[in-house]
Amino acid sequence: MSEQALTRRGRPGYDQRAILEVAVAAFIEFGYDATSMGVLATRLALSKSAIYHHFASKDELLELALAEALDGLEGVLTEESVQVGPAIDRLARVLRGAVRVLTDRLPYVTLLLRVRGNTDVERSALSRRRAFDRAVTTLVTQARDEGSLRGDIDPRVVTRLLFGMVNSIAEWYRPEGPEDAAQLADDVLAVALDGLRVNPRGGPPASADLAAPSPG
What we know:
Keywords: DNA-binding, Transcription, Transcription regulation
Shape: elongated
InterPro entries: Homeodomain-like_sf, HTH-type_TetR-like_transc_reg, HTH_TetR, KstR2_TetR_C, Tet_transcr_reg_TetR-rel_C_sf
GO molecular function, one term: DNA-binding transcription factor activity
Pfam families: TetR_C_24, TetR_N
Oligomer: single chain
DNA-binding region: 36-55
């Protein structure tokens, strides 16, 4: 469904975009399975038939919501800046873009992170998410092979750790908070990549200053 279709005015007080936003909030609060069309109708102060005027089913609402997050993440991979340059720089741009998508589309990404594959819609979304992860793992591998990242950590593990940190932002980030999205991306890159970069001698970063002092 196109953006134009989602923003088309329908019943008084709610367009399709507004209904979708309320549905996403309810899915996050109650869980998708526990959120009936009756719950949505109550929240919207509409009849169920009024919701069906815009959406064929609850599954369609979920599919559109998950696509909002996934389209954003997949779009990062196709940006021109991610296509050229050293792999370490492209990886940094992907991470920055992922943070941007998360902060711009916070409810939708939060919902995506809670999907467990209980329906065909959820399984399709998880498949797209795994494809995104594989693309990032390829970048991590290329950066390692170029000599920019440490070679003693499996690239698949690196990808999980990187996006474990990025995804955790959804649990605590608030748009009205003191840190804007750009600064947040800077912080993520500093923490995520500095510990993975090789040191000037070509080995893992030194960790002596992080070790516990010897007793006595």
